[in-house]
Design brief:
Layout: H1 3-13, H2 16-29, E1 33-37, H3 41-48, H4 76-85, H5 105-121, H6 129-136, H7 144-154, H8 167-171, H9 177-190, H10 203-209, H11 218-227, H12 229-233, H13 237-244, H14 248-258, E2 281-285, E3 291-295, E4 302-305, H15 307-312, H16 320-357, H17 359-364, H18 374-381, H19 385-392, E5 396-399, E6 403-406, E7 414-416, E8 423-425, H20 426-438, H21 448-457, H22 464-473, H23 479-482
Parallel strand pairs: 2-5
Antiparallel strand pairs: 1-4, 2-3, 5-6, 7-8
Length: about 475
């Protein structure tokens, strides 16, 4: 497999953000590339709202001398041939890129509103647990030794907010009695800070620190934490009530309060390391009812081959070694532009085929999702299945109707209907299971077998083990775990 082939497949798989980084890298490494323009906020908004696209294939970027490397920038057949070598593409691409229809004013307004919502709801970088706790020390009049010891304890908490050390390990074997008393006082101070539960040595200690002494269930909660955590986690409330010899009604009230406690208070302050999602594709509904896919392209820098270096190729006073270097770099630059254009065409072709198949999803939501496999799209667009897979990898879609979601969400397996003549998407079955459980009587929750029968009555044939798998995938407990016990 050639290096260019590997790079072609990599570029196809890149997200928009990754493509931007790749272009920046190429600009640094290849002097033959230059920016056609620097994408400003205005140009990005213009592109997003239907502005004119920049055509890479300009007159000034053409080679005029036959001895120079032939123009390959938009040689779709050449790139397609490379992909076919690795069984990536199964046929040559067309010579032109489909032009998107003019975007309607409604679509522009919807997208502007969607962008405003995204920015409005974007979470700002939060403070760490240690920063949050250290700021609270200013609320108290503390001696310098006590403040320093409290800070030392704060910055020794683990990511859960626990202080799991024994004093000998924390202070050292040769610590004095005064140091130990100071550390105990500082720990007690830290345990009074918010969020409640920080500074506990383990789960039970953390939960105990969160008990409100004024609660009518304070003592019951303390006993439950000490002896019955496993029973509470498994929703064995009657067992817990019998074990501690309290009325079931009292235990239920205590458990209801206990469930508001945070077992890992430190995790609420973890830095959000999830990358910001930038949609690669936007779906517009035309007045005719058809859904059209557009690419987000305004963010990416627009490139061309530098005219200065092209002109050097026709000069007689340039030595052969320099000309060879320029020729090689220009060839690499044009190959990159061609590969980026190929990525654009492939993404549009694949995404449009997917959207055409799942039109009902955009109209009605998850319940209308149809069964769809990668091979179906590969057959529809005439590409190899691995090409389709790479094109869909980590790509996100923005739709005014359904929000922002991964493109792969539109692929779904299937289960058979009872009559054996039809199929239904797995995600639809999961949605139905969620709806059935949401509507059940929590005092007599439905068993997995009962859910199987309900689905059968709706014409859906699903095995019990499939119900269990889907229920666990949805994070739903078994019927025993969902049961609300009567007093």
């Amino acid at each position: 497999m050639t290096q260019r082939l590997i790079q072609s497949m990599e570029i196809l798989q890149l997200t928009l953000q990754q493509l931007e980084q790749r272009i920046d890298q190429e600009l640094e490494q290849n002097p033959m590339l230059e920016l056609l323009y620097e994408p400003s906020d205005e140009s990005r908004e213009s592109e997003f709202s239907g502005g004119t696209e920049i055509d890479y294939d300009t007159e000034e970027d053409a080679f005029s001398s036959e001895e120079h490397e032939p123009e390959i920038r938009f040689d779709h057949a050449g790139v397609s041939e490379e992909f076919s070598i690795a069984d990536e593409f199964s046929q040559n691409y067309a010579d032109t890129i489909d032009e998107a229809p003019v975007r309607s004013q409604n679509w522009i307004e919807e997208q502007e509103s969607l962008r405003a919502d995204i920015f409005a709801n974007a979470e700002s970088p939060g403070e760490s647990l240690q920063e949050h706790l250290e700021q609270q020390l200013d609320w108290f009049e503390l001696s310098e030794p006590l403040r320093n010891m409290a800070r030392r304890i704060i910055y020794s908490l683990d990511s859960y907010g626990y202080f799991p050390y024994v004093w000998e390990d924390f202070l050292g074997e040769n610590h004095t009695y005064e140091e130990l008393e100071l550390a105990r006082e500082a720990l007690a101070l830290v345990q009074r800070l918010e969020p409640a539960g920080v500074g506990g040595k383990d789960l039970r200690d953390c939960l105990t620190l969160q008990i409100d002494p004024n609660s009518e269930y304070a003592e019951v909660i303390r006993v439950l934490i000490m002896f019955c955590l496993e029973d509470i986690a498994a929703n064995r409330i009657p067992v817990a009530a019998k074990k501690i010899d309290f009325p079931l009604e009292i235990v239920q009230g205590a458990v209801a309060e206990l469930r508001y406690f945070h077992p890992l208070p430190g995790t609420r302050f973890r830095k959000n390391t999830a990358p910001v999602v930038t949609p690669d594709l936007f779906v517009e509904r035309l007045e005719s009812g058809k859904y059209i896919v557009h690419l987000e392209e305004g963010r990416a820098p627009q490139l061309r081959v530098c005219k200065f270096y092209r002109d050097q190729m026709s000069k007689d006073d340039i030595d052969l070694e320099t000309k060879s270097y320029i020729k090689q770099k220009i060839g690499s630059a044009r190959w990159l532009l061609n590969a980026v254009a190929q990525r654009r065409e492939t993404l549009l072709k694949v995404a449009q085929a997917i959207v055409d198949h799942q039109t009902d999803f955009f109209e009605k939501g998850q319940q209308a999702l149809k069964p769809l496999k990668l091979q179906q799209i590969a057959d529809a667009v005439g590409l190899h299945i691995t090409t389709v897979s790479r094109a869909c990898e980590e790509k996100w879609v923005s739709s005014p109707q359904q929000g922002v979601f991964p493109l792969r969400r539109l692929f779904s397996g299937q289960v058979a209907t009872v009559d054996g003549e039809g199929t239904i998407a797995n995600d639809v079955v999961r949605s139905k299971i969620q709806d059935i459980i949401d509507r059940e009587n929590k005092k007599e929750p439905l068993s997995d077998d009962a859910i199987v029968k309900i689905l059968e009555s709706e014409g859906i044939q699903v095995a019990r083990r499939t119900i269990v798998k889907y229920r666990q995938h949805l994070g739903i407990s078994s019927s025993r775990g969902r049961r609300q016990w009567e007093t």
